[in-house]
Task: structure prediction
Amino acid sequence: MSQMLTNIKRVVEEEVGNRTSQMTVLFEAITNAIHANAKHVVCRLTSKEGSLNSEEGEVLERKVDEMEIEDDGDGFGDANYKSFCEYRTAYKQDEFGAKGVGRFVFLKVFTKASYTSYLSEGQEKKAFTFSFDFDSENVVCEDCEVSKNSTILSLSGIRSRYFDVNKHLDRRIEMDLNAIKKKVLLHLIPTLFFYKTKGCDVVVEFVDTETNDTVSITSDDVPEFEEKSFEMPLDKDNQISFTLYHKISKGDGGLHAFYCANRRTVCEFSEKDFKISLPNDFSGYLLLESNYLDEHVDNERNDFDIFPIKTDLYSTLSWKDINAHLKGIISPIIAHNIPTSDEINRTKLKDLQQERPYLVDYIEDEDLEIVGFVDKKQIIDKAKKRFDAAKDKLIAHAGKDEYTDEELQDAIQIAQNELVAYIQDRVLIIERLKTMLNDKEKSEKVIHNLFMEKYTDDDYFSVGKNNLWLLDDRFTSYSYAASDKRIKKILESVNLEAGTESDRDKPDLALFFSHNPINKRGLKSVLVELKSFDDGAKSDRDKYAGVQQLIDYIVAFQGKEDIQEIWAFLVTDVDENFGKRLVRNKYTPLFSTDRPIYHQYYDEMKTSIYVVGAETLILDAEARNKVFIDIVNKHSRLNKLISEESEVNMGVAL
Result:
């Protein structure tokens, strides 16, 4: 009795990962056949009874229960069988990168793997079963008339970790021949291309044994790739060679971008933080190969032992290193194959400038080269991390006696971008409010909460950042406010909130102070009253009564809070008739982007009152904010890049 010199069950459980699936089994079986010089591989897939039923009792999609892979390769001659019986043999390792553990994948999914090999040399039939208790002497050899080599691998007895009716567990693949073909093609396309370049066309068939439907992979499915070789520095003395196989052309199908090892695709670029896509009317392949990737792939060839980033000066290449260099290689390939690539890049640059102007200085250079084809969210996320890291570094070095010119420039840049971030926050607030203008009631509530949250109980409290810039940028430093409780107490003390008003007429007030109101000296205030935004039904006389009421509130607050000067804003519905009444009462219409803002200064109260419509409030704030945005955009890094690209393109056109 002679057994494989290892514990097969232990190898399967410890060295074959849980990500292994029936597709992994197919990949391995077909690859083994091709490595055995097969030109024709037939995969017969069987679906038996036992598919899970839905709660309604209907049978769900058919799943694969058994597989049979037949090929016309070398078969199990003495050398191949000896290699099969040895664990981690070096046989075929140099030529194919074989790891010597592929056959164990079969036993991860199935309980039994039976081989029957017909050998023309020796006119022999050889049969054996590979299982946890495999015995290499348990092979049956018979004389047989053989005109052509043929090896059949039969896989049966799917394990409960993949299919268990009682646990409602079903990890079997669907009996969808086209989907199976596509996955196999994507996985083996480097291998098939390699053999195609050697003049060896491999055909892989997939057969549904119940319906006899058949689909095939042929040499026509394998593109004619171009290749680009390049090197990356591992350290100051060593370089690592890479080859990018690429094919980009017009047509549907999307982009298939893979890191490869041992002439097989292992994982997509997107799995390693590199999301790249092509326009809808283009498709293609990007396949990266290297001995470095061969050396770092895992046993199942579905991942690599490579860190996301370098952990120290002595660590090997990281995905960040590889992808940064790879983007520079891919950029001219895309530019060559997609005529509109410059325009696509400029459009994406403008989008980034519009969305995240404060992050533009922190976008990585390699992303800028290929910006139109890289995932926008990924670019923004990485730029934000760099921005946050720069701020953390600045804080860590705060308090030094002296700073280098570089540190001072970094500090200035961070301060500028913090300001840009604040301006961008204002843009988002304005955009949100603009979308709500049609919903009057909701707009009123949201605008109130932008100024002050309701139901605060303290007399005074610090509001931190306020949104008084919606009214005027002069008031952004007003960081103290009176609570609802305080406002109500003052109004009741002068009989201005006796409880007789209807809900729509009750004052909706917010009161802000230039500094802590405990210190009365030089105290200034901003008072905001919101009237119902659907007051269009009211007469201009009734609306003007609201102005008179606001004056009463001002007098009350001045008396109780000892305020030196007040700016009061009445935000309400302002139509043409109401505007005329305001003018007749000595209110001056001020220039605005929409309807006028009406203003009057009351010298005896040292108070300015502004009457403004909700829509005008928002549009006017937007116009003021746009001044900042235009300045930022004009001097931004991306704007310079866009301008430079435009000038280059104009020069080419001329």
User: Anything to note?
Assistant: Confidence is low (pLDDT under 50) at residues 91-99, 650-654. The CA atoms of residues 242 and 290 lie 5 Å apart.
